[in-house]
Design brief:
Blueprint: E1 2-6, H1 10-22, E2 26-31, H2 34-40, E3 46-50, H3 59-70, E4 73-78, E5 91-94, H4 99-121
Parallel strand pairs: 1-2, 1-3, 3-4, 4-5
């Protein structure tokens, strides 16, 4: 499963990358803002997104854009889970997080992405 990391702190992005690679995910790129996320989004199946980026764009805004444009599943990564109110019911990993918690959330997002792809490929629609 191909993962996009949307995180503006390089050290945190590197930790996520290492954990994800060890768990068998392919990293398609790391984005620090909305424009980079949209540039890299077409290559990813799922994304892990920091909820509060330095450019002021919120993680839920990026998540909606990535899902709308590419159908990408999302995991939020945040210090403040109260900022993740999103009708899509995405997974939330609270910082600091153990590697196991990160992998569990990414695995669930990957499972959901595979199920979504299967429904679309088999002609079923989803809302």
């Amino acid at each position: 499963m191909r993962l996009l990391i949307v995180e503006d702190e390089p050290g945190i992005a590197l930790v996520i990358e290492d954990v994800a690679i060890d768990a068998g995910f392919e990293i398609t790129g790391t984005a620090g803002d909305m424009s980079e996320a949209l540039e890299l989004g077409s290559a990813a199946d799922i994304a892990i997104i920091d909820v509060r980026l330095g450019d002021g764009i919120t993680g839920p805004s990026i998540a909606r854009a990535l899902f709308s444009e590419f159908g990408i599943g999302v995991v939020y990564f945040t210090v403040n889970p109260g900022l993740t109110e999103d009708p899509e019911g995405r997974a939330v990993v609270t910082k600091p997080a153990s590697p196991d918690r990160i992998v569990d959330a990414l695995s669930m997002a990957a499972k959901n992405a595979r199920a979504r792809t299967h429904r679309v490929a088999s002609g079923h629609t989803f809302h």
